[in-house]
């Protein structure tokens, strides 16, 4: 499985280089160096784009768990957790469970844990939000690990207002649009919604690249 994933990641990187007419980089440098550079560029561009939108709108489009999502979308793009379905549903579940924990434990108007410290109610809210998020992602078969961080961001009071939910999801959607564009540009069959459970992504993407 490790070798298979490594081949898939290299096909993603080499596909983008070919589309941009930068194949010489793959010939000049080692695979590890090129893939590390690709991860650096994608991570920088993806978060910079969302942060720039947040800057010009002065709205909270960016939040910490998007960093983990960006890594998954570009490192293992054909895995189920990287699909648009899992990414969107996972973060939505995490955010909703975070808000539910704030209501449940009376923390709606409380200052964040970063400002006031962690009391018993905050401990309970954080624990509940993460546990409920994991339960619902498993129940609905939409696992996306960074969504656990989203639940904690909300339940710790860093994004405590329900009005921030559309902005949070907009940030996720912007990241998915970039992932779809770059992954398809590389020749990978990145899904429109759900990952194909029985597809051989290495063989498929290899065929696309050779064609």
- Provide the gyration radius in Å: 19 Å
Order of helices and strands: HHHHHHHHHH
How many separate domains? 1
Most strands sheet: none
The percent of residues in helical segments reads over 70%
Total count of helical runs of at least 4 residues: 10
Query: How much of the polypeptide forms β-strand, as a percent range?
Result: under 5%
What's the count of strands? Answer: 0
Shape: elongated
Overall structural class, as computed from helix and strand content, comes to mainly alpha
Distance between the termini: 25 Å
Low confidence ranges? 200-211
Mean pLDDT: 86
Overall description:
The protein is mostly helical and 211 residues long. The chain has one domain (2-210). Helix content is 70%, strand content 0%. The protein has 10 helices and no strands. The protein has helices spanning 2-19, 23-28, 31-57, 65-75, 84-104, 113-116, 120-139, 146-155, 165-185, 201-210. α1 (2-19) packs parallel to α10 (201-210) and α7 (120-139) packs antiparallel against α8. Residues 35-191 form the HPP transmembrane region domain. InterPro entries: HPP (IPR007065), TM_HPP (IPR058581).
């Amino acid at each position: 499985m490790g070798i298979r994933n490594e081949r898939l990641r290299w096909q993603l990187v080499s596909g983008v280089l070919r589309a941009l007419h930068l194949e010489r980089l793959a010939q000049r440098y080692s695979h590890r160096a090129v893939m590390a550079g690709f991860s650096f560029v994608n991570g920088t561009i993806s978060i910079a784009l969302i942060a720039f939108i947040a800057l010009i709108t002065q709205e909270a489009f960016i939040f910490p768990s998007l960093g983990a999502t960006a890594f998954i979308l570009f490192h293992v793009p054909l895995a189920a957790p990287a699909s648009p379905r899992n990414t969107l549903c996972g973060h939505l579940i995490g955010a909703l469970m975070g808000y539910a924990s704030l209501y449940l434990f009376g923390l709606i108007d409380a200052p964040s844990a970063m400002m006031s410290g962690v009391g018993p109610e905050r401990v309970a809210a954080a624990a509940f939000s993460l546990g409920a998020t994991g339960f619902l992602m498993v129940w609905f078969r939409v696992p996306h690990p960074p969504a656990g961080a989203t639940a904690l961001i909300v339940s710790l009071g860093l994004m405590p207002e329900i009005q921030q939910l559309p902005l949070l999801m907009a940030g996720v959607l912007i990241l998915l649009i970039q992932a779809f564009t770059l992954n398809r540009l590389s020749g990978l069959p990145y899904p429109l919604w759900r990952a194909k459970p029985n597809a051989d992504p290495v063989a498929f993407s290899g065929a696309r690249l050779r064609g």
